[in-house]
Amino acid sequence: MVRQIVLIKQLRKGMIVMKVRELVEKLDLEVIVGKSLDKEITGGYIGDLLSNVMAKARAGNLWLTIQGHQNVVAVALLTEVSAVIIVEDFDIEEEAVKKAEEKSINILRTPLSAYELAGKLFELGIK
To answer: Could you tell me the CA-to-CA distances from 53 to 26, 50, 56, 99, 107 in Å, in that order?
Structure first.
């Protein structure tokens, strides 16, 4: 229900609805775990402090971070983000990858900084 309300609000604001799979193709993102690439993107959140992410990230958001440990997967599951994008080619712990695969959490990676990636997301209509 909450997800439907978010999507309706986005459509009213004229925002583009895009799936994670489309974003991967458009921005040439590396897929570390991609079991659910058909999730819709509702916006974005940038943050490395997990408590802030838990409080501020919304279902369907892309979460941009440098963190690559398994607590990221737990927070992604809790907040229902559509994907976690590890920026600046930071490493991702093997345990995090295993947990993400178990829980079907999309983990992507890019050499871009969070700032650069946010600009590209904005240009694509993800706000």
So the answer is: 25, 5, 5, 19, 16
Q: Rounded to the nearest 10 degrees, what angle do helices 94-103 and 70-79 cross at?
A: 30
CB 24 within 8 A of CB 34: yes
β-strand 40-41 against 43-46: which pairing, if any? unpaired
CA distance from start to end of the chain: 21
Checking DSSP bridges between strand 61-65 and strand 107-109, what pairing results, if any? unpaired
Q: How far apart are CA 29 and CA 21, in angstroms?
A: 10
Domain 2-123 is of which CATH architecture? Answer: 3-Layer(aba) Sandwich (3.40)
Per-residue pLDDT of the chain (127 residues), as tens digits, is 555 555 555 554 555 689 999 999 999 999 999 999 999 999 999 999 999 999 999 999 999 999 999 999 999 999 999 999 999 999 999 999 999 999 999 999 999 999 999 999 999 999 8
For the chain, the domains span 2-123
